[in-house]
Amino acid sequence: MSTPSFDRPSEVPPEITFTVLPKAIAEFHHLPLHVPVLVDRQEEIEKKGYDFNEGSQLMKRLLEAAPSVPGAYLYQLFTRKWDKLMELNPYFAKGRIGEAIPKLVEILEIDPECPLTAFQLAYCFRVTGELEKSESFYKQALRMAPDAGWIYSNLGRTYRIMGDKKKAAEVFWKALELLPGDQFVLEQLVELSELFIIPKPDDSGEALFVKRSDYESKMKEALEKETDIESLMGLGWKLLQDRLVDLATQCFEKVLVLDSQFFDAFLGLGTAHLESGRFKDAEKYLTSYLEENPDSATGHLNLFKVYLAQNEEDLAWQEIQAAVLLDPNRLDVLRQLYFLFLEADRQDEGMEWIEQLIEDVPDSFGPLLVKAWGMNEVDNWEEAEEALRLALKRAPHNEDVLLYYTAELGRRGKTEDLIQLILNEPEPWSLSLTINLALAYTQTRKIDDAKKILKKFLTRPDLPLEDQQRAKALLSEIEKED
Question: What stretch of H or E contains 35?
């Protein structure tokens, strides 16, 4: 920000001067580029960013002294809506999102061209599950503030919840154009397989983000050169993980050319065809695989997905039960079982099934975690927490339980409990637990502690590039706020 050149009315108080907002910030708040600051605060504010609470009060003083100052109309609108917007912060902090919506509508009536208010409404509708309204309000905000990259990134979140990966990728690319190097946007593009992380060729330990087309060419070349069956299997599963399904299919087919009885390739092909929506082919390969490997929970889970996609519910139910009984701690299997009951509106029956599993397999933690999900669904935190504690008793230090437990403590504002729970765990902590602890420290203003644990995490040898990137990005954000 810098001082703009415009005619300064003589009646402007001498202690007030003006600074220039970045265009995207001005658009987002529906303000002119030039905004008032105190002369003795100008240098600090131009380093740290504009303080809109302070600015709102200055605008009121300025309008009283110089009602014809350039930008007066937008200042008037801003001062009328800003205090009302601030009154909504407790609603957001306590998760009372539905109650905030009518108040935001009233604020939008004050200033119908306010992107910030439209943006907040879009967020509220995303949280309440009214996704078409969320999309509409994000688009309204973008019409008024087309340079605000964070609106695109939040619209991308809505599209991801909608399941529209194509639209999500489009808006995340636009967000990256406006917010170069933004870590959240980069991560979203990686998750959508639009970008891939590879190490720099200079052995520096740094990462490069590579576009899908370039990465796909590199992996295709590797596939063509590879002739070892085990290496091809590993490559095939990696290609599936990277959502390069056609290449994965070619990889597993190449294995069967080399050895037609290598049945793990049948599982790979069945999974690849499932991912591509070729359900009859997937059923053929998965059935063949399970004939040789009847105790494979993965095989039964994937065949369950095939039958469910073809509306063969009785067959699907048999397969998911088989998968659960083979591995009662496998959370992706239990999650499918639980959601199957939810979709059929048979929650009570599903919870009875889970309770029986808890009793029948006394050393299992997975069913207890599912119970905690279910209790949270009906806002019964007391029973949910009891299930989580028992899960940790059965499986001490289990990361899945700890991540869900700490996330819920954070969501409920029980930050000190969250911190203590992680500190009681032996080190080294995973990246996710480290991040949860760092964020909890920042919320309690223990910034030095947050920076310390992230720096310690980054000293670990052989950290995956993705973990390095996320830890560095969070540390950078914390250091900016300090």
Answer: strand 34-38
Is 190 in contact with 183 (CB distance < 8 Å)?
no
Q: Round to whole Å and give the CA distance between 376 and 404.
A: 11
The CA distance from 155 to 115, in Å, is 13
Q: Does the N-terminal peptide bond of residue 428 adopt cis geometry, omega within 30 degrees of 0?
A: yes
Instruction: Characterize 335-373 residue by residue with b for buried, 16 or more Cβ atoms within 10 angstroms of its Cβ, and e for exposed.
Output: ebbbebbeeeeeeeebbebbeebbeebeebbbbbbbbbb
What's CA 464's distance to the chain center, in Å?
A: 19
Distances (CA, A) of 225 to 217, 239, 252, 256, 265: 13, 15, 14, 16, 18
Q: Distance between CA atoms of 168 and 184, rounded to whole angstroms? A: 13
Q: In this predicted model, what pLDDT tens digit does every residue of 421-465 receive, in sequence order?
A: 999 999 999 999 999 999 999 988 899 999 999 999 999 988 887
The count of C-alpha atoms lying within 13 angstroms of the C-alpha of 393, restricted to the half-sphere facing its C-beta, is 8
What domains can be seen in the chain, in order of their start residue? 16-85 (no CATH), 147-195 (no CATH), 219-327 (1.25.40.10), 328-396 (1.25.40.10), 399-482 (1.25.40)
One-letter amino acid at 160 equals R
User: What backbone phi and psi angles, to 5 degrees, belong to 94?
Assistant: -95, 5
Question: How distant, in Å, are the alpha carbons of 146, 169, 182, 244, 330 from that of 189?
Answer: 20, 7, 11, 14, 28
Closest by Cα among 442, 436, 454 to 481: 442
Angle at 327 between CA 464 and CA 335, to 5 degrees: 75
Tokens of 108: 């939008």
Query: What separation in angstroms does the CA of 315 have from each of 276, 293, 310, 320, 348?
Result: 21, 18, 10, 9, 22
Among residues 116, 26, 111, the alpha carbon closest in space to that of 71 is found at 26
Neighbours of 442 (CB within 10 A): 19
- Residue from 167, 162, 217, 208 nearest 186 by CA: 208
State the Cα–Cα distance between residues 254 and 366, nearest whole angstrom.
37
| pLDDT, tens digit (0-9, with 9 covering 90-100), for 84-131 | 999 998 888 777 889 999 999 999 999 999 999 999 999 999 989 999
Task: Pull the structure tokens for residue 256.
Answer: 């069967």
Half-sphere exposure of 460 (CA within 13 A, CB side): 19
- Helix 245-258 × helix 212-225 angle, to 10°: 0
> Distance (Å, rounded) from C-alpha 179 to C-alpha 199?
23
Residues of the chain with pLDDT under 70: 1-8, 202-206, 481-482
- Positive or negative: CA dihedral 117, 122, 126, 129: positive
Residue 199 is classified by DSSP as E
